[in-house]
Amino acid sequence: MNSLAQVIAAVSTPPGKGGVAIIRMSGNGAFEIAEKAFKPISGKKISAYRPRTQIYGHIIYNEEKIDDVLLTLFPAPHSYTGEDTVEICCHGGVLVTRTVLEALLRAGAMPATAGEFTRRAFLNGQMDLTQAEAVIDLIDAETAAAARNAAAQLDGGLRRALTPIQDALLEITSRFYAVVDYPDEDIEDIHPEQIAASL
To answer: Three-state SS string across the chain, please?
Structure first.
């Protein structure tokens, strides 16, 4: 089975005690898995709600209510990973968080590996490689300057700087290949001075 076809789930907040924890689930079928483990207070199906609207309800595990949570749906392609994504805000106790995740895994999700949500975002064209690398830089930043640099890179700053350079190199390469591959065509020769000026 293609790993991108699997629904993955993981706790997105640091382990330990806290007021709130966030659990993320992503992949084709994430909404159906959420429907099995989550019961809205309203009694409606989660598909009846608009995307990016928080839905108040309960996580059910072994037919028992585990926690009061807020669930948000992010349909593909307008999510972090580019796939159907569900985020659940639950209370941040170690046991509660682990049990909510276990409820999703029992309903059909697979445990996510470290960095897998960002990997899927890259593979689904939601970000380029420089932006994907910036995610860990931002998480690991220990100074304000490092955080600013990582945030700028995540926003595409490095890509915007490199794209014109890449385009210029491709222009030189294509002109060179055109002259070499089609010597009988009426293509203007590329001169070393032009290459040097471009470089």
So the answer is: CCHHHCCEEEECCCCCCCCEEEEEEECCCHHHHHHHHEEECCCCCHHHCCCCCCEEEEEEECCEEEEEEEEEEECCCCCCCCCCEEEEEEECCHHHHHHHHHHHHHCCCEECCCCHHHHHHHHCCCCCHHHHHHHHHHHHCCCHHHHHHHHHHHCCHHHHHHHHHHHHHHHHHHHHHHHHHCCCCCCCCCCHHHHHHHC
pLDDT digits (tens, 9 = 90+) for 9-49: 999 998 888 899 999 999 999 999 999 999 999 999 998 99
Residue 68: partners with Cβ closer than 8 Å, 6 or more residues away: 56, 57, 58, 90, 91
pLDDT digits (tens, 9 = 90+) for 81-113: 999 999 999 999 889 999 999 999 999 999 999
pLDDT value at residue 190:
75
With beta carbons less than 8 A apart as the criterion, state whether 24 and 7 touch: no
Residue that is written with structure tokens 């108040």 in the block? 56
2 pLDDT higher than 50: no
d(CA 99, CA 105): 10
Question: Cβ distance 36 to 59 under 8 Å?
Answer: no
Token pair in block for residue 158? 């490095």
